[in-house]
Each structure stands twice: as C-alpha cells, then as structure tokens.
Amino acid sequence: MIVGIGHNTLVQDNDPYNHGETSSIRNVGRQDFSTTMIFTTLSSCDICATLIYMRQFNRVVVGDVTNASGNEQMLREKGVKVDILEDLAGIAFYAKYRAEKPEFGMEDWKDLATVRKAA
C-alpha cells in the first residue's frame, strides 16, 4: 500500500529542501514509519537521509546511485536497510536532465558551490 507520494519541487516552489523524500513525508504527516519503506530516485542528500533515519523508516530503495550517491552507508550504520536498484532507464534519464540543466542538478544535489564558481 502506498501511504504517501512526493516529488522534488526545488524550482517550482523555490524551496531547496523540498526533495522527493521530504515532500512524501510531508504528504503523509505524523505517522509511525518504522514498518515502512521509502523509494527514492537518487540516493538521499544529507538532509533527507537524516529525516529518513529520524522518522525511523526501516528500508530505503534507491533507483540510481550512479548520478548521486553518498548516504547509503550512513543509513546502514543507523540500522536502515538500503536496497540499490541501479535502474538503467532511470540512470539515463537523470544523466540527460543533468546534462541539459546542470545548474538544477548540482543545486539539488551536493555540489552547489561548483555551480556558483562556474557562473
């Protein structure tokens, strides 16, 4: 059963913290997530990974760590099960997006400083 859905609205809402994870958790509200898994397109950023741990999700399924990785080990160390799919279609889709809109891809992931230096 799907209990909540969300997607990144960095550009639409001018909100740098409204990633898919935060959006979906906000959509559900104050719930017990200890028996729940969360699905993400990319590996979670630091803030989203912390939120996943804080809200006690028991599992994270990540579609693509090729384009963005980094917090899988931290989540595992906190007791969260992490499954990595490496979905080829998803990897290609995000790589194309990042090539077309590098300023959004980098701002949305960990390398905003690189984008600002290049400008």
Outline the structure in words:
By secondary structure, this protein is α/β, with parallel strands linked by helices. It has a single domain, classed as Cytidine Deaminase, domain 2 (3-Layer(aba) Sandwich), CATH 3.40.140.10. A three-stranded parallel β-sheet has the order 1-2-3. Helix 3 links the parallel strand 1 and strand 2. Helix 5 crosses helix 6. The mean pLDDT is 86.
Task: Provide a concise account of the structure shown.
With 119 residues, this protein is α/β, with parallel strands linked by helices. It has a single domain (10-113), classed as Cytidine Deaminase, domain 2.
Please give the number of β-strands.
Answer: 3
Q: How many structurally independent domains?
A: 1
Helix content, binned percent? 40-55%
CATH topology: Cytidine Deaminase, domain 2
| Largest sheet: number of strands, sense, barrel closure | 3 strands, parallel
Instruction: Write the CATH homologous superfamily.
Output: Cytidine Deaminase, domain 2
How would you spell out the order of helices and strands?
HHEHEHEHHH
Percentage beta strand:
5-15%
Distance between the termini: 45 Å
How would you describe the shape?
globular
Q: Strand sequence of the main sheet, in spatial order?
A: 1-2-3
From the alpha-carbon coordinates, what is the Rg to the nearest angstrom? 14 Å
> What is the average per-residue confidence, as pLDDT, rounded to a whole number?
86
Question: What is the CATH C-level name?
Answer: Alpha Beta
Q: Unreliable runs, pLDDT <50, ≥5 residues?
A: none
Class per helix and strand makeup: alpha/beta
Q: From the coordinates shown, what is the CATH architecture?
A: 3-Layer(aba) Sandwich
The quaternary organization reads as single chain
Number of helices: 7
